Amino acid sequence: MEITCYRDQELACETRHLPAATYNQALTLLARSATGNLFVPIRSMQYLAILDAEEWVFLDGERKCWIDVAWRHFRPQARTSLEDPVEYEAVFYQANARDLMVRLLAELPRALQDLAKKAHVEGPARVIKFPVPKPG
User: Fold this and answer.
1) Can you give the pLDDT at residue 132?
2) C-alpha R_g of the chain
């Protein structure tokens, strides 16, 4: 699938933190994607999230190809545990985008879970054995 997206003038930009579970789930699904991007329908909001390694954008079903909010500059390397939240930059292109963020942060994890349930993993699982550390 190919979608061309457009942006209005950037109205605001701020640093935020994404819960680890949401970030980790998205990265897991993204890693399984053969195309390098992921289309996540957020049905409860009539939005489409498009995720890639650089940026996550959110499109309203009514405005089609116009980005309302973008999340970018993820900094997973700044966390000390996989359970720590991930810092990112939220960019707002609509006046109501800050209010929209509250719903996106609640609904995106549900949409990712729904997508994960439908995802089919190809091939057998592998267990990687790590050597037992020698007593020091």
Assistant:
1) 79
2) 17
